[in-house]
Specification:
Bound molecules: 5'-O-[(R)-(carboxyoxy)(hydroxy)phosphoryl]adenosine, zinc ion
Shape: globular
Radius of gyration: 20 Å
CATH class of the largest domain: Alpha Beta
Number of domains: 2
Strand content: 15-25%
Mean pLDDT: 96
Number of helices: 11
Length: 335
């Protein structure tokens, strides 16, 4: 078996994983920083970088213990090097380079969005299957056309806030905790009638782009004008609008590209209403749907190590001079 050690630190989760042959998760440890960012209502980049410094080596030890392997069993080291918070990325990349240098292992730089898309392969999708991938997280909302050999093309993206960011901002606005996605998800599960219909932004536009900041403003005005609506009802109606847009646009893209396979990944893919709606519609239309379990939707190093395997067997290695980059470097393709 080829074992790849994966390291992920692009945002606020410090994670290390070991994956065998691209799909067997032998260890996957995530140290979450929620408690440190909660009082600020969002991620503070400097705190994130400092906490990665504290967490990364204990997480590495923990992962080796969980897998029962040692560094001698590792064939290569894969690490997220873009896009993300620069200070956070530097911590993971420095750990990866140090290990690669000392133990003479190949280094593989991983694109965070491509890693999220690979999470579908940890849930049964065959790598290289042409499909549409929706990556919806706190930092990104992207529709990708994935082709043979795993090549990805950006076919739609958010023009302002990412879907997860909108969940977090609306949650803050309504006085709920951070991160907003899981809080609103739980609340919506208990709320069966809202009586509120928020707009579905960009739903009728011919492209596959998204926009969520207007929806956030609509929530703000509704709260001011309608004291009869509870915060729970507003949050639920907001979630319904986001889910509706994400599902509809992804299906439109699948149809336009003539593909019959769809994957939904990234932190927002942990949302239970979103998962339910995708499943319902894909079942109805006969589309193959891949949504990883929640722990593989949010940031984790298993997706990094898994994708690292695919690069390793294709000899797509990087030098020890590899740097970090805050942006994705992806250019929107004309459809
Ligand atoms: O992928 P991720 O862990 O980190 C980034 O790369 O951004 O995504 C984190 C985002 C946060 O905005 C969080 O509120 C959202 O994913 N999220 C959810 C749920 N769980 C996490 N959004 C909606 N419903 C959830 N259950
Ligand atoms: Zn992410």
């Amino acid at each position: 078996m080829i074992n790849i050690l994966g390291i992920e630190s692009s945002c606020d989760d410090s994670s290390v994983a070991i994956v065998g042959d691209g799909v067997n998760i032998l260890g996957n440890v995530v140290a979450n920083q929620e408690a440190y960012h909660k009082k600020y209502g969002g991620i503070v980049p400097e705190i994130a970088a400092r906490k990665h410094m504290e967490h990364m080596l204990p997480v590495l030890d923990h992962c080796f213990n969980e897998s029962g392997l040692t560094i001698d069993d590792i064939d290569a080291i894969a690490v997220t090097h873009r896009p993300g918070l620069v200070g956070s990325l530097i911590v993971g990349l420095t750990v990866a380079k140090t290990l690669a240098y000392i133990h003479q292992k190949p280094l593989i730089g991983i694109h965070h969005i491509e890693a999220h898309a690979y999470a579908a392969c940890l849930a049964g999708l065959k790598y290289g299957t042409p499909h549409v991938a929706l990556v919806a997280s706190g930092g990104h909302t992207s529709l990708l056309r994935m082709s043979e050999e795993g090549r990805m093309a950006l076919i739609g993206q958010t023009l302002d806030d990412a879907a997860g960011e909108a969940f977090d901002k609306v949650s803050k606005l309504l006085g709920f905790g951070y991160p907003g996605g899981p809080v609103i998800d739980r609340m919506a599960a208990e709320c069966n009638h809202t009586g509120i219909e928020f707009p579905r932004p960009m739903l009728s536009s011919p492209d596959f782009n998204f926009s969520f900041s207007g929806l956030k403003t609509a929530v703000m005005y509704h709260r001011k004008k309608h004291s009869e609506s509870s915060s729970e009802q507003i949050a639920t109606a907001f979630q319904e609008a986001v889910v509706d847009v994400l599902v509809s646009k992804s299906l439109q893209a699948t149809q336009k590209l003539g593909l019959n396979t769809l994957s939904v990944v990234g932190g927002v893919a942990a949302n239970s209403a979103l998962r339910r709606k995708f499943k319902e519609i894909c079942d109805k239309r006969g589309l193959s749907l891949f949504i990883p379990p929640s722990r593989l939707c949010t940031d984790n190093a298993a997706m990094v190590a898994g994708l690292g395997y695919q690069k390793y067997i294709r000899n797509l290695l990087d030098p020890l001079t590899l740097g970090v980059c805050s942006h994705s470097g992806m250019i929107l393709q004309k459809m």
